[in-house]
Design goal:
By secondary structure, the protein is α+β, with helices and mostly antiparallel strands. The protein has two domains: 63 residues, no CATH class; 52 residues, no CATH class. It is built from four helices and six strands; from the N terminus they run H-H-E-E-E-E-H-E-E-H. Helix 1 runs antiparallel to helix 2 and helix 1 packs across helix 3. It starts with 5 loop residues before the first helix and ends in a 17-residue tail after the last helix.
């Protein structure tokens, strides 16, 4: 949620056909937000927030989902399934070698997309779970 780029988010909203008053409302929700930090009695200078969606609101998860669901437009060998901020990549093949090559290719595409969208893969929460049926 913290690194969602406002410009990319507004572009994604527009791509979905959300225009006019609704788009203006979302734009005003994201733009001109400011913050400062207090540590003990020290208050930092105010700074503009150019990324991230405000947490604790009902609109923020929707904006995040609109943003992250664009990952499904990638041309991957496997099937991507997203739920909130969790994503699963299902890959099948005739051999482990074929699956391994497909996973490597898909993960390269996913990593590139994440970088382009100012998002990051949490390696501590990333697993490969091989199954044989």
């Amino acid at each position: 949620f913290d690194t969602i780029d406002h410009k990319i988010s507004l572009k994604n909203v527009n791509t979905l056909g959300i225009k006019g008053t609704a788009q203006n409302l979302i734009s005003s929700y994201l733009k001109n937000r400011k913050q400062h930090v207090r540590i003990n009695n020290e208050l930092s200078e105010e700074t503009s927030i150019i990324c991230g969606v405000p947490q604790g609101t009902t609109l923020s998860p929707t904006l995040f989902n609109i943003h992250i669901n664009q990952i499904n437009n990638l041309n991957t060998h496997g099937k991507l399934v997203c739920y909130a901020n969790d994503t699963v990549l299902f890959v099948e093949g005739q051999s482990w070698d074929e699956v391994f090559v497909s996973v490597q290719s898909d993960m390269s595409k996913i990593q590139k997309w994440l970088c382009e969208n100012n998002l990051f893969l949490n390696l501590e929460k990333t697993y490969i779970l091989p199954h044989y049926i």
